[in-house]
Write a structure and sequence with these properties.
The protein has 132 residues and is an alpha+beta fold. It contains two helices and three strands; from the N terminus they run H-H-E-E-E. The longest helix is centred in the middle third of the chain and has 55 residues. The protein binds zinc ion. The site of zinc ion has 7 residues, from loops.
Length: 132
């Protein structure tokens, strides 16, 4: 039985046509042939498991690096946000848009009240994207 030479390294993985031939000739094969096929199928299984385990390790490493990159970029954005807010020292950032808040008030609405954050540029923000 030949091995597919599609990988740069020698792979014990069976090609699909080899696996199909094993399945097709299974009932007519003698014991030594069956023993060889079982060994080849077990080698194939080990090779595929090795690939999956290597992929799992690469994915875990990738996720770790993505978290590090996200933390770094968030740190840069936070620093920029602090620099932008410097002229309004002591003003808290708006929980909706991040800009410094000049005032917070409650507005009465037909369905209850809404907490509205006012900004120096005249913009107002309130929960659920109802900013004006
Ligand atoms: Zn806002």
């Amino acid at each position: 039985m030949r091995k597919r030479a599609s990988f740069a390294y020698s792979s014990p993985m069976l090609a699909d046509d080899d696996a199909n031939r094993i399945e097709f000739e299974l009932v007519r094969a003698d014991k030594p042939t069956l023993v060889r096929w079982v060994k080849e199928l077990l080698d194939d299984r080990r090779a595929r498991s090795g690939i999956l385990q290597a992929q799992a390790r690469r994915l875990a490493h990738l996720r770790q690096r993505l978290k590090q990159a996200a933390d770094y970029l968030d740190g840069l954005a936070l620093k920029a946000q602090e620099e932008v807010a410097a002229p309004w020292k002591g003003k808290l950032p708006c929980p909706h848009c991040g800009a410094p808040v000049s005032g917070v008030r409650a507005e009465q609405r037909p369905q209850g009240h809404a907490v509205v954050h006012d900004h120096l540029d005249g913009r107002t923000c309130e929960p659920e994207g109802k900013g004006r």
